[in-house]
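MODEL INPUT / OUTPUT PAIR
PAIR INDEX: 1
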Amino acid sequence: MKVWKYGDGINTDMLFPGKYTYTCSTPEEILPHLLEDLDPNFAKGAEAGDIIMAGENFGCGSSREQPTVGLKTVGIKAEVAKSFARIFYRSAINQGLVLVECPEAVEAYKEGDSVDVKPEEGKIAVGDKEFTFPKLPAEIIAIRDAGGLLAYVRNELKQREGR
């Protein structure tokens, strides 16, 4: 597990360059360009279980799904930031990503620290320190567990229909 640390104001163009918006739509097309203008090593080095730590207003900018689709496809365990842009936050939930606002944890993180996020408990450990945040609502955990909002809704409909 690796922690990728970024600063404030990381916008959607930094997460996924706008020049690819209309030419890349599948996860396989998105992955090579994920964070390429912010961190050229991310697309090559990110792995399932990794965590992103970031500053304020993470995901600001234009509305596009490629950044969240790409982060989900990589298998990012959680994104911990001081704050998230609302449009990115909603897109991330739709994809089943875990977003945690915990400025204290972001401030405490130093290169090489271990990070363990427990969204169901509202806890995050950074090195030898533990921080709390509001537990994620059961619905958001259920969307994550289903693999995203579409899968969650499909499952709900099947259950109602008795399948």
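PAIR INDEX: 2
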Amino acid sequence: MSEPGQSFDIPQPQTVEAEGFLLRPYSMDDLEQAEKFADDPLTVQWAPMRRGGNDVAHWISQRLNWDGHMTWWAVDDHDQIFGGVSVFQFDFHNANVMLGYWVAPHARGRGVAARAAKAASAFTFANIPVARIGLFHAVMNEASCKAATKAGFEYEGTLRKSWRYPDGELHDEHVHGLLRP
């Protein structure tokens, strides 16, 4: 466990086994697949692919090197992307990080987000001395709430009007947390 003020190194990008698929680092070779998802209304609503006017190539390029985050695609044996998961907002002083995920349209309803969150959380706890992984999602995003709970993240409360999503509105968000086993 980290001590207050202690920093730690983020591991180099690497592949992680998940239940039924792999988590692998981003690559610019994935641009064509990712652009298909970036036009999906639910992906645009909840995932950060096009936030701030960035195009998908810029979004991927920001995630190639693990500088302040760890980001993976969830892929099958044929390298088809099911979605993505990131660990970010490393708070060294308080031994906390945040986790977020999104799921491609063709993979929704198959438990991808929960399994990706479990694998990314296990990797995080094994490699980084944090006490807690937090997860926020819009209250309206019921699928994300189910995935968080299924991944072992406990519901901790609701933040009112806490995050501006791409629709321009401030949304209430649920807070979930997972503590180091």
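PAIR 2 NOTE: The chain has a mean pLDDT of 89.
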